[in-house]
Design a protein that fits this description.
Distance between the termini: 109 Å
Number of helices: 27
Number of strands: 34
Low-confidence stretches: 418-429
Length: 873
């Protein structure tokens, strides 16, 4: 059975059992307890806790998952993968153990036609109920059912004795036995029926749940009769492509180290492609750190196989094609994904050369120190800075009879753990807060009225003060803001890049100033302060949004949709949205593009947006199933999780996007669109910042005022200001060049007579030591020649000057002093170091340089001390 057929067969089977077919959650959910989505149950945590829609009791999904706990085993074992698909069926207080087991058997034996003799089962040690269902009701022989302990057949593993406290339960695993291949666990049925309150203390839950998981790739490998997940129909093409680009015959290399490397690169290419499709980019922390680590590991594997050029990016189209049936949206992301991967590969390859040199240098230093242990901090630094995995350092070190201090590595890794790892404690998975308590009474959260109104009556259903539910709140000076929760509200809560509304909430005897609005757990949270009176839960209020600010936000948000259209028109379909920020009459829009947009294209984009504004086209929105919206071609933000019923915003006949933000009635209300900046925010991602409406007009007015002032100052028409400024700059440049070449006026020069007038005596000699301003070294030599003509005998001269942060020194003696043993070069050798320099020359004339002009006074003093010693005071 093909992998795509297996996926569809599973989902259709459980849909026939009354399970609602739900889409996969995103890979990086808005969930602080996990880094990536690790299992199908994660998106249903609220339902498992009894906080979801009471009418929603059954679900089935195929969940995209990433797990990094066993990342080092990828490619080495037949089953370990970073990215995989998890088939699941779930019950929230509805069907339980009997149905879960019967349906699992029915699907495997009746739908998939698996020979029952190829299946074995495990149950928890004392779960007689599950054992009896398998044996007495299904008819499985007892020798094909194994009882296992809490470390193997309980979720979380070891929970009864080791904890943590919280929801838990036994499980039953199903194994497939193929011909000539190891047995493989293909399905795990988890029966969450207890609440652990202490060691060995398991209290039955009032509502028992079902959480099952079937690894799609594992099951496909079993059904296709291949020995590993890497050989199934959707994965083999990626492996073949990796081997081909690396120049290796995979059939011959399969059981070698190169085979491991090829499988690992294939796995990582698939995981990276899906991550980048959802805008999870390589970076220094959290999910980005993992993506970068996967990419670098694959590049390093190729490097060790002799590859010195990027290769991983070539696998992205193969991944998209292999996964097309399940995830057709991948294809449109391929150009963007390839660009990001290649850019990361090129940068890492540059670093890798340095890293390998540092690694070899580390080996050399370790041996030189008489040690055979590589410091753990050094090994981890090679990983964190250069991407060289610790096990690679270990392997290469072993080749030179060295070993790595692994405890030291772990100590260094601990400091880095918050960056590379998310919270994984099972107890946190089902953590609750004050809003969860509120959700028990208000399952649907707050009703949003802001699409059609900016003022509405409402009732206060919750007050949060310092993170706790309160019954009332009074006006007070200072302190942190509090939160009002209403049953219905016109206030938009920050989401989708659009900032939250501000305004006022008034009731009988009180006023509340809303400083911001957030959205959490289907509730709209009005953050602010009581400015008058006292507000209490149950109070009837009138909620009023700041209308002018809301309108300015609507202008900016509608303009982002026009900008998105213009980007596609002028840059191409690859210019997909990668994030946005919408504020009053101001927006920033991030999008995929490998290079700067450029002035001409930026002007064309701005012109297109304003042309659309002038059409005055109507803006409308409709609620529809997400599948229908995608069929209509509505654009969606990749990596964003959308509900089954989505809001499609349409502008004229040119823009149709999934969007929950507030928009204008027609695009003409944008007024005016003005681009104010374009920049890079990451490799392959650009950002346009723009203004709309009043803010755009204000900017143009400011620029007009500046232009008018320049025009008046330069005394030319506004249209001639650029040419006049250019001419002035050319004139300034010419004048500066002339000034640098012009010698000081003769009246400003120091003359030989001036120097002789200030001369001193040492023994029988006349000594001239001076700093000369505005002189070159050549001019100092000319001065010395002039002095020697005026004093043919008994003359000692040392002159210095400073220019452009440097010092020039020139010294000379008359012939008679040279005959008596004086040496100008030796004199400078004792003086030049004072100004940070050195030099030398002939006995009668020598030159030196220095770099500390501020030490010239000290050098002059040193010159006098030296000549006194030589000639006598």
């Amino acid at each position: 059975m093909k992998t795509d057929d297996l996926r569809e067969a599973y989902l259709e089977f459980f849909a026939s059992k009354g399970c609602v077919r739900k889409p996969s959650d995103v890979l990086a959910p808005n969930d602080p307890t996990v880094l990536f989505t690790p299992a199908g149950m994660n998106q249903f945590k609220r339902e498992f806790m009894g906080l979801g829609d009471p009418g929603f009791k059954r679900a089935t999904t195929c969940q995209k998952c990433i797990r990094t706990g066993d990342i080092e085993n990828v490619g080495k074992t037949p089953r370990h993968m970073t990215f995989f698909e998890m088939l699941g069926n779930f019950s929230f207080g509805d069907y339980f153990k009997r149905e879960a087991i019967h349906w699992a058997w029915e699907f495997l034996v009746d739908t998939l036609k698996i020979d029952p003799k190829r299946l074995t089962f495990t149950v928890y040690l004392d779960d007689d109920e599950a054992f009896d269902i398998w044996h007495k009701e299904i008819g499985v022989p007892t020798d094909r059912i194994t009882r296992m302990g809490e470390d193997d057949n309980f979720w979380p593993a070891g929970a009864p004795t080791q904890g943590p406290n919280g929801v838990c339960g036994p499980c039953s695993e199903i194994f497939y036995h193929g011909d000539g291949i190891e047995e493989v666990e293909i399905w795990n049925l988890v029966f969450t029926q207890y609440n652990r309150v202490g060691p060995g203390q398991l209290e039955p839950l009032p509502n028992k749940n079902i959480d099952t998981g079937m690894g799609l790739e594992r099951a496909a490998a079993a059904l296709q009769g291949v020995r590993s997940n890497f050989e199934i129909d959707v994965f083999a093409p990626i492996v073949d492509a990796a081997a081909d680009v690396l120049g290796v015959d995979y059939a011959q290399a399969r059981d070698t180290l190169d085979g491991v490397r090829i499988r690992r690169a294939s796995d990582h290419a698939r995981a990276i492609t899906f991550c980048l499709h959802e805008n999870i980019r390589p970076g220094p922390e959290k999910q980005g750190y993992v993506v970068r680590r996967l990419l670098r590991r694959a590049v390093l594997d190729a490097y060790q196989m002799g590859r010195r050029e990027p290769f991983l990016y070539t696998l992205a189209p193969v991944v998209a094609e292999s996964m097309r049936r399940g995830y057709p949206e991948l294809v449109d992301s391929v150009p963007r994904v390839q660009h990001i991967i290649r850019d990361e590969e090129e940068r890492f390859l540059r670093n890798l050369e340095n890293g390998m040199r540092l690694l070899n240098d580390t080996f050399r230093k370790t041996k030189a120190a008489g040690s055979d242990v590589i410091a753990g901090a050094a090994a981890f630094d090679l990983l964190s800075t250069y991407g060289i995995p610790v096990e690679v350092t270990e392997s290469l070190a072993a080749d030179q009879n060295l070993r790595v201090d692994m405890p030291g590595v772990e100590a260094a890794r601990t400091k880095f753990s918050a960056v590379s790892r998310g919270t994984t404690e099972a107890a946190d998975v089902f953590a609750t807060g004050p809003l969860d308590t509120l959700k028990e009474a208000y399952h649907k959260g707050s009703e949003f009225l802001g699409y059609t109104s900016t003022e509405a009556p409402a009732t206060v259903i919750g007050i949060l003060e310092q993170g706790q539910l309160a019954q009332s709140a009074e006006a007070s000076q200072g302190g942190p803001p509090i939160v009002l929760v209403l049953d219905r509200t016109p206030f938009y809560g920050e989401s989708g890049g659009q900032v939250g509304d501000v305004g006022t909430i008034r009731g009988d005897g009180f006023a509340f100033h809303v400083e911001d609005t957030k959205k959490d757990n289907d509730f709209f949270l009005h953050l602010g302060r009581v400015v008058e009176g006292k507000v209490a839960v149950g109070g009837h209020v009138t909620a009023t949004v700041d209308v002018d600010r809301r309108q300015a936000i609507r202008r900016a948000h509608s303009a982002t949709h026009l900008l998105h259209y213009a980007l596609h028109k002028h840059l191409g379909k690859h210019a997909q949205q990668a994030g946005s920020k919408v504020e009053p009459d101001r927006l920033r829009f991030d999008f995929a593009n490998p290079e700067a947009v450029g002035k001409e294209r930026l002007e064309a984009i701005e012109k297109t947006v304003n042309a659309l504004v002038m059409t005055g086209s109507a803006v409308s929105w409709t609620l529809m199933p997400i599948a229908e919206a995608k069929t209509l071609g509505a654009m969606a933000l990749f990596g964003e999780k959308y509900p089954e019923i989505v809001r499609v915003v349409q502008m004229g006949d040119f823009s149709r996007e999934l969007c929950g933000g507030t928009h204008l009635d027609n695009v003409g209300q944008v007024g005016f669109f003005k681009v104010v900046g374009e920049e890079s925010v990451a490799a392959g991602t650009r950002r346009i910042t723009a203004l709309t409406g009043q803010a755009a007009l204000d900017l143009v007015r400011q620029e007009e005022d500046v232009l008018a002032q320049l025009s008046a100052t330069l005394r030319v028409p506004a249209s001639q200001v650029p040419d006049r400024v250019a001419a002035l700059l050319d004139e300034i440049k010419t004048l500066k060049k002339q000034a640098s070449q012009r010698k000081p006026d003769a009246g400003d020069k120091t003359s030989a007579d001036d120097l002789l007038a200030a001369a001193r005596s040492a023994g029988d000699a006349t000594v001239v030591i001076a700093a000369v301003e505005n002189a070159t070294a050549d001019e100092l030599r000319v001065l010395i020649d002039g002095l020697r003509r005026k004093r043919e005998n008994g003359l000692a001269v040392l002159l210095m000057t400073a220019a452009e942060g440097k010092v020039q020194l020139v010294a000379g003696f008359s012939r008679d002093l040279v005959d008596k043993g004086q040496h100008a070069g030796n004199w400078l050798k004792k003086v030049a170091p004072v100004v940070g320099g050195g030099g030398g020359g002939r006995p009668e004339l020598a030159q030196a340089g220095g770099k500390n002009p501020d030490q010239i006074p000290a050098a002059l003093e040193q010159a006098w001390i030296v000549i006194q010693e030589n000639l006598g005071g």
